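User: quick one, fold this
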Amino acid sequence: MGRIIAGILCQLIIVSTVNAQSHISLGGGYNQSIYYCGLPKSTYYTTFRPYDSYLVNISYKKDVAVERNNMRIGAQCEWKRQSAYFYYEDRRNGDTIPSGIRYDLNIIQLYVFPELVVGNPIRFVFSGGPCMEYIVSSKAKGIRLIDDERTEMEETNNGDIKGLYVGAKICIGMEFPVYKDFYIIVYNAYSAGLSSKYGRLQKQMKYFNCLDINLYATLCYRFTPNDKTINK
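Assistant:
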């Protein structure tokens, strides 16, 4: 996966040396995280309840020289909040004492992608590619099971969830012209962790991560680097 990301980044650098149009955008919107794990339901019971959250991002894209002028390649850096309530019961030996904790994670995501655009002036936009995510900080609040007793806790960066992991992301959107070289894209995006998050919960759950469902808008600006030089 790391080689794939490196390869796409190299392509982006190569394309950026060509005098093609560039696009820079700022965006923000809604995020919901749906968690999953590798625990067998026969011996453990887990429930993950997502909470509404939010994200902001910045993107840079470059037109690719193809006949129909409908391809771009780009990179995006995104900060997002992942929020969910984890409910857990260990049913081995008849033990059904539950514990439940809400986790709020601050995530940085790097996403690289090719993008297809179709239509005029309103355009359909589709992109997909690999991503990497890093957990910058975490907050945990709820009930933890300690020595068979339910104990209230509220902790920051407690090591339950941490680390760097890889995933995949797809984005579907509609592009609307605004004024001259400004335009807006409204996206529905999905990103899923392919490797496990790390920390104490990874040892307990074997494997766990989440599917992020995003709805956000970006304000974009289109420009041509070295435009004055070209006109001369």
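User: anything notable?
Assistant: The chain is about 10% helix and 65% strand.
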